[in-house]
Design a protein that fits this description.
There is one protein chain. The protein has seven helices and seven strands. By secondary structure, it is an alpha+beta fold. It has a five-stranded mixed beta sheet, with helices on both faces. Strands 1-4 form a two-stranded antiparallel ribbon. Strand 2 and strand 3 form a beta hairpin. Helix 1 packs across helix 2 and helix 3 packs across helix 4. The two termini are about 35 Å apart.
Amino acid sequence: MKSHPTAIDLAAAEAAARDLLQALGADPSSPVLQDTPARMARSYAELLTPQTFEMTTFPNDGGYDELVLVKDIPFHSLCEHHLLPFVGTAHVGYLPRERVLGLSKVARIVEMFARGLQTQERMTMQIAAWIEDNLAPKGVGVVLSASHSCMSLRGARSHGTTTVTSALKGLIRNSDRSRAEFLDLVNSRA
């Protein structure tokens, strides 16, 4: 898995933002732009710094062995190819074994991997692998659906397009019944 940066040099990022503005023909010393380099540096630092959290799990003392699915988790990330945002929703499910994951932690996992320079494909795989490695469920399924600014604002300028990626592991990949249940629930309005 790709690691996130450990520290962002805000002073260097601010200087680079100032240089970028100047290279783009703007005057970074003008009254309307003088604070822009610092704001840009702080904005990128926020977008690129994952928030830490404690993974909370609970004993599966009821023996629950059906799918747990958290749908419509909003996320935003930065395309590593253009540094433009992509925005969408994540649907994350798993088949528990001995432990169940605190539901809010599913959203935290998505956010952790969204914070950074990303591709949607890699982010999808990272979320699934993290849950598989840290929870050891019988299966994991992740579907991300997002709109990419790099497609709508430049290049093809394809407004309204959505990119969907999936990562299926364990029984959600290998069992026709479990895979169908996961995908049906992801696509349902319920």
